[in-house]
């Protein structure tokens, strides 16, 4: 998918009644690699409560918004995020069958969001989360090799979620700028805190899940060391996006300046025709060959 065309979009669409058939997904769905699988499973565990947090953070300022387009975007943002929580909950139900303590781990992740901060800080945290998840989408799908070993149903899940994250990537930011009363210092602090929180939490929960899978301390240490290099090493998945991450700390940062994912139009056409995320993901994937 390298060198593919990038597209911009102003349309935020909530797709419902999507079927992923998670019961057909193998335990280690990411190239039979326990760490990669559990890392993304850990991210997935964070989404149901995370999406609720993002919705609440934006809704707290909705009554102050007067721009009709932004009000429409907020409604679409809420619908998309709610749907993400619903679908990831279905995947998380699958994890319970693998003896993963889903409820306890979701509680750990929920507590890490810290709902006791100010409304302004929570909104800034939401802006940061939205940007990092949009960058994660680019990491996964701009270079086809990164996610090539994932099970097709999980590819479909992450393609769908990533595309919708990129569709609404600027909504929370626009709310923050128009009515959020968030100064630049608070925004940068929230971003630094959030970036660390996302990955520290996911790595910690992944480690617990691997322990539940029966891996020893030494085995898990080796997996985590290798996994961190895969993420943050010289050629790591996130390392390749470090310039974009650092851009987020600049005063002129605006997520709407970033183009949407490669072959977005291919996926949209396929999902509109069939409402089948597996089919749409296949068409999207083929477009990058």
Automatic annotation (TrEMBL):
Highest taxon of source: Bacteria
Pfam families: Metal_hydrol
Stated name of the protein: Metal-dependent hydrolase
């Amino acid at each position: 998918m390298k060198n593919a065309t990038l597209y911009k979009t102003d349309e935020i669409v909530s797709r419902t009644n999507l079927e992923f058939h998670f019961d057909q997904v193998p335990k280690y769905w990411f190239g039979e690699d326990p760490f990669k699988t559990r890392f993304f499973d850990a991210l997935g565990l964070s989404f149901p409560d995370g999406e609720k947090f993002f919705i609440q953070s934006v809704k707290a300022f909705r009554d102050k918004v007067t721009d009709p387009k932004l009000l429409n975007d907020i409604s679409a943002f809420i619908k998309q995020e709610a749907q993400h929580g619903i679908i990831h909950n279905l995947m998380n139900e699958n994890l319970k069958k693998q003896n993963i303590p889903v409820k306890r781990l979701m509680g750990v992740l929920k507590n890490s969001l810290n709902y006791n901060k100010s409304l302004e800080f929570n909104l800034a945290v939401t802006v940061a989360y939205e940007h990092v998840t949009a960058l994660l989408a680019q990491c996964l799908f701009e270079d086809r090799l990164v996610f090539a070993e994932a099970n097709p149903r999980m590819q479909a899940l992450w393609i769908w979620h990533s595309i919708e994250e990129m569709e609404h990537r600027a909504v929370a930011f626009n709310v923050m700028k128009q009515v959020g009363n968030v100064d630049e210092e608070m925004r940068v602090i929230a971003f630094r805190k959030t970036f660390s929180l996302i990955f520290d939490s996911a790595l910690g929960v992944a480690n617990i899940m691997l322990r539940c899978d029966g891996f020893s301390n030494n085995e898990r240490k080796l997996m985590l060391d290798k996994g961190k290099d895969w993420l943050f090493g010289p050629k790591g998945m996130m390392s390749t996006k470090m310039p974009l991450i650092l851009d987020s700390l600049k005063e002129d940062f605006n997520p709407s300046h970033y183009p949407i994912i490669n072959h977005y139009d291919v996926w949209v056409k396929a999902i509109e025709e069939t409402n089948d995320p597996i089919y749409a993901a296949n068409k999207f994937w083929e477009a990058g060959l």
